[in-house]
Amino acid sequence: MPYRRSSLMEERLADNRLRILKSARALVAEGGFRQASITAVAARAGLSTGAIYRYFPAKADLFVEVLNSAVDYEVAMLQKIADGKGDVGTRLRAAVRSFVSRAVEGPNLAYAFIAEPADLEVEAARLICRERFGEVFKQLLREGIAANVLPAQSIDVGAACIVGAFTEALVRPITPNAKREASKALIEGIVEFCARAVGAAKAS
Amino acid sequence: MPYRRSSLMEERLADNRLRILKSARALVAEGGFRQASITAVAARAGLSTGAIYRYFPAKADLFVEVLNSAVDYEVAMLQKIADGKGDVGTRLRAAVRSFVSRAVEGPNLAYAFIAEPADLEVEAARLICRERFGEVFKQLLREGIAANVLPAQSIDVGAACIVGAFTEALVRPITPNAKREASKALIEGIVEFCARAVGAAKAS
Amino acid sequence: MPYRRSSLMEERLADNRLRILKSARALVAEGGFRQASITAVAARAGLSTGAIYRYFPAKADLFVEVLNSAVDYEVAMLQKIADGKGDVGTRLRAAVRSFVSRAVEGPNLAYAFIAEPADLEVEAARLICRERFGEVFKQLLREGIAANVLPAQSIDVGAACIVGAFTEALVRPITPNAKREASKALIEGIVEFCARAVGAAKAS
Amino acid sequence: MPYRRSSLMEERLADNRLRILKSARALVAEGGFRQASITAVAARAGLSTGAIYRYFPAKADLFVEVLNSAVDYEVAMLQKIADGKGDVGTRLRAAVRSFVSRAVEGPNLAYAFIAEPADLEVEAARLICRERFGEVFKQLLREGIAANVLPAQSIDVGAACIVGAFTEALVRPITPNAKREASKALIEGIVEFCARAVGAAKAS
DNA sequence: CATGAATGAGAATTCATTCAT
DNA sequence: TATGAATGAATTCTCATTCAT
């Protein structure tokens, strides 16, 4: 009688794949790609190194997926906001706020997103990720300029700078004191910086 | 009779030290920290690997100095502009333009400045470098706000975002076609983005 | 009540065993022992890796049997020819022709027969296989010499050399051009070489 | 004052390279490519694994050189004999005798010459090596046939078979008893086998 | 019995650092 | 003092074998 894979086992499998991804992501978030060796990922996931290769054909594939899955989620969030109702400026503010808030919150994709990966394939994926963030803002800028709500400006450059500006929030502990409060100020600071930059300053 | 180091020898020593630093910087600029192995640095400097260790106790120390010396130069340039005459907005524009122009021009410290170094010590130095760039802009923002030329805003955040925005320009090939012309547009795009962001928009 | 293995089940078992052997042989024939991993054998046989170990205690045992069963067949073919009627020279020619023809025909056991196996046990089996081929030719030589049809000569050496000579035909693509025709010439070339070597040259 | 490499040091270096080659060759001779891991080669040479890579860029390069250098020597010996004076049959006998004698003598390139290497690059080199042996015999056959000393026959096939026949001497312990004496008989057996095969039988 | 995920030892390769010369 | 050969730990990846299900 053939062996039938139990649903419990399938759960275990899916679980392992996820654990590997989470381990990898956590390690990158904590100390960059530097610390994310296969051995370290395996140890953290409670698996052997060989097990990693059942789920990912090579190290690069694992980290490309780490990057992509994290960015998929983030971009989806931003896109939802960008596609929402309300005036362009508000949506742009909301998008920046949404991203930066999560970034400030905890160690997630942040570091990976800017850090130089050891692998060229991963590096390529990283650049594409940055582009994808830019796309969301390009769309908002295009819409705003077309509607005469935003002043004429370079869409490509604007999008890139926004991404750069809030990326910065991910790298440095800008305000090392008074975490919670400072975060709030930091987030709003970035939001307003970007808003002013694109000419969507609040009517004050 | 005590051995007296000849001035000629001292020159040689200083010369070697400089050559090592230049080799290291060039290698990082060309291919990131990835390519900057001690062996590669030594080969490029026309020295032996052992010789490197006469001038630098460890790899990390060498690259910390590479980073610092490169940033010393850049910050000095920016500081000079910031300390110059003319209104704050113009000086801020000039500072951004100065940095981004050189960055776009050729692969120099740019890459090193954003790339993840292999070493924790170097990573720390890199973060400090970013701070140092920020300081220049903080000064300008402070001055501008004090003089009521710039609107009230978070100085820390503003400075960070400016650095982030123009850092972004270093990472991606925003406009892969029409190099020269596009660079010009890119540079001015970033300059204006930052100017608007801090409320130093041109009188249009 | 004791468990009675149904004959249907036994068939299944024998079937699996055969499938495993066939898979292994095919893989070795295609790319040497290099490509014949347990995983590959299992996949090709449509079984799990674990199943292999139900039929063979270890990888080496599987490949020893692969070798032996393949050689059983070949040796049986040769033996039939050697035991046939007609003069010794003709039979020796036929035997060499039979072996070389099949070898040239397609990738079968040929490669395995000469290739270095990954395992010491298999290596030992391989050497024994070569001996077994030799035995057939020893018999023919003995008979021929006894009947004064062949000149006096070392039987052991003669047999070994014949095996060596036609083994060589398996290793190199002697004539890469004009496949069919060349094969024919190659085969007859080897046949006549061996015939002359043992003093069974055609009456010319 | 620049450091000048002493000739003693250069000797050491050349010595190491040679030691590595010898270790590799010995390991292959003893147990095939299977046993010749970089670790094993290094250990046997009294060096670290890293040291191997100072002399050989990759494992394949090391073993290609092992193969080539061994074959260079052998082929040179054979060529010298083939280019000598005397009738073709005598030279052919001498060439075969020369090769087989050394092969029987001790574990040298023998195994490597026939064994399947783990590496495709090495495999390619191995096939070329076999061809090179063949070339020497092709030359002799061509000369003999042209001078009407040898009967008409396929030169390519003849050369291949000769190589095959004496290769066999390398693989198996044809005569396990009475080493010395048997070797003598084995060697002459192979010599005469090949001589008869090409039609250069002794006038008896 | 069958399954195939997991193991873990081992392979090739790299590179910062040391030290005999 | 300069050299660069040597070290050896670390890294990625493979695969025969086991065992919970």
UniProtKB/TrEMBL annotation, chains A, B, C, D:
Location of the DNA-binding region in this protein: 37-56
UniProt entry tagged with the keyword Metal-binding: no
Domain HTH tetR-type: 14-74
Superkingdom classification of source: Bacteria
InterPro entries registered for this protein in UniProt: DNA-bd_HTH_TetR-type_CS (IPR023772), Homeodomain-like_sf (IPR009057), HTH-type_TetR-like_transc_reg (IPR050109), HTH_TetR (IPR001647), Tet_transcr_reg_TetR-rel_C_sf (IPR036271)
UniProt entry keywords in alphabetical sequence: DNA-binding
Pfam families documented for this protein: TetR_N
GO molecular function annotation: DNA-binding transcription factor activity; transcription cis-regulatory region binding
Transmembrane segments: none
Name of protein: Transcriptional regulator, TetR family protein
Organism of this sequence: Hydrocarboniphaga effusa AP103
Organism classification: Bacteria, Pseudomonadati, Pseudomonadota, Gammaproteobacteria, Nevskiales
